[in-house]
Amino acid sequence: MRIDVVSIFPEYLSPLELSLIGKARTTGLLDLHVHDLRTWTTDRHRTVDDAPLGGGAGMVMRPEPWAAALADVREAGRRTLEEPDAVPHLLVPSPAGVPFTQAMAHELADEAWLAFACGRYEGIDERVLDVAAEQGPVTPVSLGDYVLNGGEVAVLAVVEAVARLLPGVLGNPESVVEESHAPATGGLLEAPVYTRPATWEGRSAPDVLLSGHHAKVAAWRREQSLRRTAARRPDLLERLDAAQLTRADRAV
Ligand SMILES: Nc1cc(-c2ccc3ccn(Cc4ccccc4)c3c2)n[nH]1
Questions:
Q1: With a 6 A CB cut-off, is 150 part of the ligand 1 pocket?
Q2: Nearest-angstrom CA–CA distance, 101 and 98
Q3: Is the CB of 140 inside a 6 Å radius of any atom of ligand 1?
Q4: Which ipTM score applies to this complex?
Q5: Ligand 1: distance of its center to the CA of 122 in Å?
């Protein structure tokens, strides 16, 4: 997978050089390129923002540098992918975006080329997204109902959530099966986890986990997932259709 990121703070994306994502880049599983938007400014002060038309607080990111940057990103990606007609799926973090979910992460992990436009200030001139949408898919994405100062943190989260699903990135592909929001758990929250020592600071891990009885362990984890989901995310339980909840589930 190729990923391009454009930002006025490219160093914000340095964490993507670390750990498993960093390893995926060095092994070639992930071809990630970070670009400084100011590269595409033409004035002495390398200006990327201007006052909002219609007034209002803050500044808006000017369309010209973004249009030039995205055009070059498209061109460079086509050369590298050796597909002259290829276009990236452009993802634009925004408080007004479509909620980013694990399901979307799985969809994006199946794509060959993603590009991220990291806004700052009050956002990017809307016409940039309109022009981009004439070239290929554009999706404004929100991480959640809270406000960040820019798109970089959201890109770190989305890139990690997507890249970890790529075959070969995680040592044990099994680990994405039983986690929260995974299809295999029916979208339930995952059960509590424990490791050695069995008793720590006078606190013992649940006996069933030491029983070696796999069916009982699985049943305990399912019950814990249901209890935790009911307590913390009742909205997820409502989504589960009757088929996914067994009689034992309903008894919890
Ligand atoms: N889930 C989520 C995403 C963002 C986000 C993403 C990109 C940008 C670019 C500028 N800002 C600041 C901003 C604050 C308020 C209104 C508009 C823009 C951003 C915020 N916040 N929360």
A1: yes
A2: 9
A3: no
A4: 0.99
A5: 7
User: Does the model's pTM come out above 0.90?
Assistant: yes
More confident residue, 234 or 238: 234
For 25-41, give the DSSP string. HHTTS-EEEEEEGGGG-
Ligand 1 in contact with 136 (CB < 6 A)? no
List, in order, residues 6 or more apart from 44 with CB less than 8 Å away: none
Pocket lining: 149 vs ligand 1, CB cutoff 6 Å: yes
Amino acid at 224: Q
CA of 165 to the centre of ligand 1 (A): 26
CA 205 from centre of chain: 33
Could you tell me if the CB of 56 is within 6 A of ligand 1? no
Q: What is the pLDDT of residues 127-178, one digit of tens each?
A: 999 999 999 999 999 999 999 999 999 999 999 999 999 999 998 777 776 6
Q: Say how many residues make up the chain.
A: 252
Please, what is the end-to-end C-alpha distance for the chain in angstroms?
A: 42
Identify the pLDDT of residue 163.
Answer: 97
Euclidean distance between CA atoms 122 and 58, whole angstroms: 6
